[in-house]
Amino acid sequence: MEQQDYLQRLIEQLGRVLGKISSNLIGLKNKGQIEDGFEMTNQTLKGELDFDIQKLINLPPDNFIKTLRANKGFNNENINKLADILLLIAEYSQGQEKKMLYRKCLMIYEYLEKAENVYSIVREGKIEQIKNVL
């Protein structure tokens, strides 16, 4: 029971942190300062969760989803939030970083399409948007 409570707290904490990051990114976007978003995202995740998003993004494709799933606190909802954050950052990134972020987003969204039994027209739209860019 204690283990379940601990995991639930981790999931909730990660959800709150990802929500905070998303809000901050939208604020930066509205101010025209989204370029600072990736660094802010990484610093927030490192500081609050000891999680390095840069290392995660640099993982080879075959280990990417496995690593996310192995990290406690990453349920499908939080993985989706992470993809939304990466997508927002990717839209304002340049060159290889942009492509790498889009590819990771696509991997997450496609994983969620298979893992969940609910069709999401919003997620499908994001997948199509990413495929058009790549």
Summarize the structure.
The protein is mostly helical and 134 residues long. It contains 7 helices and no strands.
If you had to describe this structure to a student in words, what would you say it looks like?
There is one protein chain. By secondary structure, the chain is mostly helical. The chain has one domain (2-133). It is 81% helix and 0% strand. The chain has seven helices and no strands. It has helices at 2-31, 37-49, 53-57, 61-70, 76-91, 95-115, 121-133. Helix 1 packs antiparallel against helix 2 (37-49). It is globular. The mean pLDDT is 85.
Mean pLDDT: 85
Shape verdict: globular
What Rg do the Cα atoms give? 15 Å
- Kindly state the percentage of residues in helix: over 70%
Strand content: under 5%
DSSP, total strands: 0
Terminal Cα span: 45 Å
Layout of helices and strands, plus pairs?
Elements: H1 2-31, H2 37-49, H3 53-57, H4 61-70, H5 76-91, H6 95-115, H7 121-133
Helix pairs in contact: 1-2, 1-5, 5-6, 6-7
Could you name the key traits of this structure?
134 residues; 7 helices; globular; mainly alpha
